[in-house]
Specification:
Shape: globular
Strand order of the largest sheet: 1-2-3
Distance between the termini: 22 Å
Number of helices: 2
Largest sheet: 3 strands, mixed
Helix content: 40-55%
Order of helices and strands: HEEHE
Radius of gyration: 12 Å
Number of domains: 1
CATH architecture: 2-Layer Sandwich
Length: 81
């Protein structure tokens, strides 16, 4: 997996947002999407309850769509068990 400097900058920004807005959720790692190796997943721990997971998904969906539109990088924040 190759991550360029702009992708790294964007990922670090998303992780900072995660730490600031979801301190109960922890960064795990970064992987390629199984469907498309150009897409990156920021894997995070799953929130304790479903409402918190929905909040996390909504929060990051706007940010990741902005990244896709502005820079052409498809990066998702993925809660995992």
């Amino acid at each position: 997996m190759r991550i360029n400097s702009k992708q790294q900058e964007l990922i670090e920004g998303l992780i900072c947002e995660l730490n600031r807005n979801f301190p109960d959720v922890k960064f795990v790692d970064i992987t390629e999407s199984p469907e498309n190796p150009n897409d990156l997943w920021i894997n995070v721990t799953e929130p304790e309850d479903e409402d918190r997971e929905i909040e996390l998904t909504k929060f990051f969906s706007d940010k990741t769509v902005d990244i896709l539109m502005d820079y052409g990088y498809h990066i998702l924040v993925m809660p995992i068990r």
